[in-house]
Amino acid sequence: MQSRKPSISVFFPCYNDEKVIVTLVEKAINNLKKVASDWEVIVIDDASSDNSREVLTQAAKKYRELKLIFHPKNRGYGGALKSGFKTAKYDLVFYTDGDGQYDVNELPLLVSLMTRDVNFINGIKMERQDAQHRIFFGNLHKFFNRWLFWLPVYDVDCDFRLIRKSLLDKIKLNSNSGSICIELVKKAQRAGAKFREVSVHHYERKYGQSQFFRLDKIASTYLDIAKLWLDLNVFGK
Asked: In 3D, which of 4, 2, 25 has the Cα closest to residue 14?
């Protein structure tokens, strides 16, 4: 007897991703038709300054399952993820970045690995396709935070995740910067998450520029990481 397909919410944070975001939406829809009983696709535009909102508005006229959230002001990566988690309504919640560096066609792999004994699937980048300095500092960042927070996953910065909504409902996220990835994994662990990890492809960014590798963003993120460590380990939040 074939098991019932799950219901899935997919969302993408978007910031100046006009050239790729609709392609990601279409890939998500094509895959969800195969693996989900009920589904939705959500895009959270975090106050883009390009034509992202225009192309998304046109796409929403074509795809009734597409939901759009437009932030009037930029809330940061964490703010975009929090909007996505809050809006998602189905049993499984998948998200990845809106810049196209991960392959949405690998979503069915994660769905197949979401067995009854698992409620959080975290990707591991097979080979990071970025500039050498970003790979070096990315690996250092990953190693540092994995041991600072005793994280249960290898690649906390791999934003290719499938999570049960019942688990997400148990945790409250506060971070607005990239530190939300650490907060999400650590608070999920404390809420009793059962993790599974899987290798996924990572591709070179074809359009736009990363918003993280700027001095102000890096400083803000590490201030948030320090605050997060104090909240979790000293104040018990």
From this structure: 25
